[in-house]
Design goal:
- By secondary structure, the protein is mostly beta strands.
- It folds into 2 domains: 123 residues, no CATH class; 139 residues, Jelly Rolls (Sandwich), CATH 2.60.120.
- It is 6% helix and 36% strand.
- The strands form 7 sheets. Strands 11, 15, 16, 17, 18 and 21 form a 6-stranded antiparallel β-sheet that branches. The chain has a 5-stranded antiparallel β-sheet with strand order 3-10-5-8-4, with helices on one face.
- The longest helix is centred in the first third of the chain and has 9 residues.
- It starts with 10 loop residues before the first helix and ends in a 6-residue tail after the last strand.
Length: 285
């Protein structure tokens, strides 16, 4: 059984929500749920794949009123939450795999996940209900891109960084691109056409965040394998180690190009679990 965990600091909000039988929500404007590009959460098919275990299910809550606003607010309060599923009035099944046990979430619960889901991922029917991702972005240029890189193994290809799904937290196995441990390790996205690029957003594997330093991002017009001297500079990370699993690098001015490169300037691995490439006039949340 998944334990019922009562949010300790959420009781006062629950009392404010029910006023004379009318739902009155007084929460931050950051908790927005729609299909518009200004949204903080985007509806997705699911937040688990059929091959995943429950390592990406962070917590479940059964607040007095479970809706997209209360579940979104709970996700906002968890450092590793990148999405949630709102379980409806009918019980919802989560399969551990196709051959073994099943677990059930009872009605009216918020299930929080650490999964990063993009709109390019078609999802699975492991979780029936309304699921929302705070990672997905409707104008992400990487949704239709292809990728190459100096991967150290065919088990960790460049395409994994834009496959639209990342979940694993406890092992290095999973859908991440891993480069060779070398100076100028690189990853390159082909956007298929010319676009104005303003920023990139990267989801990192938790135990490799220290690798993401002295990283340079460029935009170019011609494909290249490792030599991006003809590309224009977009942004760069500092030489200091980072601890966050999400890094955003923004340009001072957008650049127009078809190819976007990410390259290390020191000898190191380049590990990218999910990459978003965002055009100009887009708000990075």
């Amino acid at each position: 059984m998944i334990p019922r965990i009562k949010p300790l600091n959420f009781l006062s909000l629950q009392r404010k929500i029910l006023v004379g039988g009318v739902l009155a929500v007084l929460l931050s404007a950051r908790v927005r749920l729609s299909s518009q590009e200004s949204s903080y959460y985007i509806k997705v098919p699911s937040l688990m794949s059929e091959t995943e275990d429950l390592s990406c299910l962070l917590k479940t809550f059964d607040p007095l009123v479970a809706n997209t606003v209360t579940c979104g607010s709970l996700c906002e309060g968890h450092e590793m939450c990148f999405g949630f599923c709102l379980v409806g009035s009918n019980s919802t099944e989560i399969r551990l795999d196709s051959n073994t046990k099943s677990l059930f979430l009872s009605e009216h619960r918020c299930a929080l996940y650490s999964t990063s889901i993009s709109l390019s991922w078609k999802g699975s029917k492991v979780v029936e209900g309304k699921c929302y991702s705070r990672w997905a972005h409707p104008r992400d240029l990487a949704l239709k891109a292809t990728a190459t890189g100096n991967s150290y193994s065919t088990d960790y290809p460049a395409s994994y960084a834009i496959d639209g799904y990342y979940c694993k937290q406890t092992t290095q196995e999973g859908t991440c691109f891993w480069s060779e441990n070398a100076k100028n390790s690189w990853w390159l996205a082909d956007l298929g056409d010319f676009h104005p690029v303003s920023s990139i957003r990267v989801r990192l594997y938790r135990s490799t965040t220290s690798y993401f330093r002295d990283i340079e991002v460029k935009v170019g017009n011609r494909s290249s394998e490792g030599d991006f001297s003809s590309f224009e500079f977009l942004a760069r990370s500092s030489g200091e180690e980072v601890s966050s699993v999400v890094i955003t690098l923004k340009a001072k001015n957008p650049l127009v190009g078809r190819f976007v490169s990410i390259q290390t300037l020191v000898s190191n691995f380049l590990v990218l679990c999910e990459v978003q490439i965002l055009p100009a006039t887009v708000t990075v949340h």
